[in-house]
C-alpha cells in the first residue's frame, strides 16, 4: 500500500484535491478532522488546552472556542508552539492508527494523508511520497478570505504562521499547481496517479 502525503499551505486547495481523490475511490485520512476529534469535550487534549490557555477558550457548553483560540495562537508564535506541543503527538498517533487499519484490510493500493502541516510535523517519514499543492500567495489569500470571511490581516497572519511554500518545495516529490481552475487541478492529480500505477 502506497501512502501519499498531500500537503500545502492554508487554502492552497488540499481539501479540493482530496475530494477529487475520494471521487476516484481513494481513501483519505484528514488531519484537520482528527485535530477536531481529539479536542472534543472529555478528551485529555481539551483538558490540557484548558490548563494552558484557561477556561476562556471553551464555550459554555464545554466545546472548544476555535475562533478565539485561533486568534490567540495565530498572533503569538510561542502560544502556537504550546498548542502544537499538546496536539501534534496525538494527531500523529491517530493517523498511524488509521494507516494500520487500512493496511490490515489489504484493499487499497493507495491511500492519502491530507495534512496542512505534514512537513512541519515531520510526518514525511510515515509517507512514501509528498505531494505539495501550491498557489501564488495572492490567490491563496483571496481564496482564504472568500472561504473563511477573515480580514486580509488575519488571513496573512495564518499564512505566515506556516512554513513558506518555497521552503516546503524542498521536501516535495511532486508539486501540484493550483493557480488555475479545478479541471486543471484534476488533470494533474490523474497524471500523478497514472505515474504511481505504472
Ligand atoms: C487553532 C485552531 C483551534 C483554530 O481552529 P479553526 O477552526 O479556526 O481552523 P482549522 O482547524 O479549520 O484550521 C484551518 C487551517 O489553519 C491551518 N492551521 C491549523 N493549525 C495550525 C497550526 N498549528 N499551525 C499553522 N497552521 C495551522 C491549517 O492550514 C488548517 O487547515 C485549530 O487550527 C487547531 O486546533 N490547531 C492545532 C492543531 C493542528 O495543528 N492542526 C493541523 C493539523 S495538520
Ligand atoms: N482551482 C481552484 N479554483 C477556484 N477555487 C478554488 C480552487 N481550488 C480551491 N479553491 C477554493 O479555495 C478555497 C480553499 O481551498 P481548500 O479548502 O481546498 O484549501 P485547503 O488547502 O484544504 O485549506 P485548509 O488548509 O484551510 O484546510 C476553497 O473555497 C476552494 O473551494
TrEMBL record:
- Location in the cell: Cytoplasm
Biological process terms in GO annotation? coenzyme A biosynthetic process
EC code: 2.7.1.24
* Reaction(s) catalysed by this chain's protein: 3'-dephospho-CoA + ATP = ADP + CoA + H(+)
Instruction: Pull one GO CC term from this UniProt entry.
Output: cytoplasm
The pathway it acts in is: Cofactor biosynthesis; coenzyme A biosynthesis; CoA from (R)-pantothenate: step 5/5
The record's section on InterPro entries has: Depp_CoAkinase, P-loop_NTPase
The protein's matches in Pfam families, at most eight in alphabetical order, are given as: CoaE
- Keyword Nucleotide-binding set for record: yes
Q: Which family does it belong to?
A: Belongs to the CoaE family.
**Main role?**
Catalyzes the phosphorylation of the 3'-hydroxyl group of dephosphocoenzyme A to form coenzyme A.
Q: Which HAMAP family match?
A: Dephospho_CoA_kinase
Q: What is this protein called?
A: Dephospho-CoA kinase
Q: Which organism is this protein's natural source?
A: Marinisporobacter balticus
Amino acid at each position: 500500500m502506497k501512502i501519499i502525503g498531500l500537503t500545502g499551505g492554508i487554502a492552497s486547495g488540499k481539501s479540493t484535491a482530496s475530494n477529487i481523490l475520494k471521487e476516484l475511490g481513494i481513501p483519505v485520512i484528514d488531519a484537520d478532522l482528527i485535530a477536531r476529534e481529539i479536542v472534543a469535550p472529555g478528551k485529555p487534549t481539551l483538558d490540557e488546552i484548558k490548563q494552558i490557555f484557561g477556561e476562556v477558550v471553551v464555550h459554555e457548553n464545554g466545546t472548544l472556542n476555535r475562533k478565539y483560540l485561533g486568534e490567540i495562537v495565530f498572533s503569538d508564535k510561542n502560544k502556537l508552539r504550546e498548542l502544537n506541543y499538546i496536539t501534534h503527538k496525538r494527531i500523529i498517533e491517530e493517523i498511524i492508527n488509521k494507516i494500520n487499519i487500512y493496511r490490515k484490510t489489504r484493499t487499497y493500493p493507495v491511500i492519502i494523508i491530507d495534512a496542512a502541516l505534514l512537513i512541519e510535523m515531520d510526518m514525511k517519514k510515515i509517507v512514501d511520497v509528498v505531494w505539495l499543492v501550491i498557489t501564488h500567495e495572492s490567490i491563496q489569500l483571496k481564496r482564504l478570505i472568500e472561504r473563511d470571511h477573515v480580514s486580509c490581516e488575519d488571513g496573512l497572519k495564518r499564512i505566515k504562521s506556516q512554513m513558506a511554500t518555497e521552503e516546503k518545495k524542498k521536501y516535495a516529490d511532486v508539486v501540484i499547481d493550483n493557480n488555475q481552475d479545478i479541471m486543471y487541478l484534476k488533470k494533474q492529480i490523474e497524471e500523478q496517479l497514472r505515474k504511481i500505477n505504472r
